[in-house]
Each structure stands twice: as structure tokens, then as C-alpha cells.
Amino acid sequence: EHVGDEVATLALGDHVLGCYPPDLGGACCEYVAIHESFLILKPASIPFEKACAALRAGLRAYSALHYKMRIVQGDWLALTNPTSYTAKLAMQLAKSWGAKTIAMCRSKQECTAVVGADATV
Fold first, then answer.
1. Does residue 53 sit in helix, strand or coil?
2. Distance between CA 29 and CA 23 in Å, rounded?
3. pLDDT tens digits, one per residue of 93-120
4. Which residues lie below 8 Å from residue 61, measured CB to CB, with a gap of 6+?
């Protein structure tokens, strides 16, 4: 194990998370030779399992909105199960790109847990 000579932001022993870019085939692994720009430091307060789940949910949301749905400013996005990790991240991404969001809730209680939706149903 070693860190390349030109790596500036990471050191040997750092706990990192990262995924090979989805548009290049994608991969999640324990060991990989990859550019440091595809890696982030794992916060010490978060266990690997939770950090990996959040990263995976974020990549799933990004891939769906950007590559499959091609969400842009002015679009509307309806989210089922709006309290899941993936839906919460999808809502934030869509809104950051100028889209509007609708949270489709199963109950009033679920709707009160949804933060940031433009509308709830």
C-alpha cells in the first residue's frame, strides 16, 4: 500500500470513501488506483457502514437525475418514499439545479418529516 508522489490532499492511513465515476463504468472497492479527486475523507465520527450507505444513496440519486432523467431548471420531480436517504438527496440535487419537487407521502406524519419539498401530496 502506498500513496502516489503527486497526491496532495490524502496521506497513507487516511480513511477515505470514493467511487469510480458512473460514466466510466463505476466501481466500489477496498483497494483501487484512482485519482484523488474521486475520493473524500471519511468523517471520523461516522462508521464506514453509514458513510458508505450515504455515498451510495447520493450516487444513485445523482445518476438517476443527471444521466437518466436529465433534470434541469423548471422541471418537476415527484418523489415517492420521500424520507429515504436517496429521495432526500435527490430532492436537494434537483432543487440545486432549479427544479421543483413534490413529496408523495403515505401519511400526514410522513409529510411532516419531509423538509424542502415545494409541494406534498
1. helix
2. 17
3. 999 999 999 999 888 888 877 888 999 8
4. 86, 87, 89, 90, 93
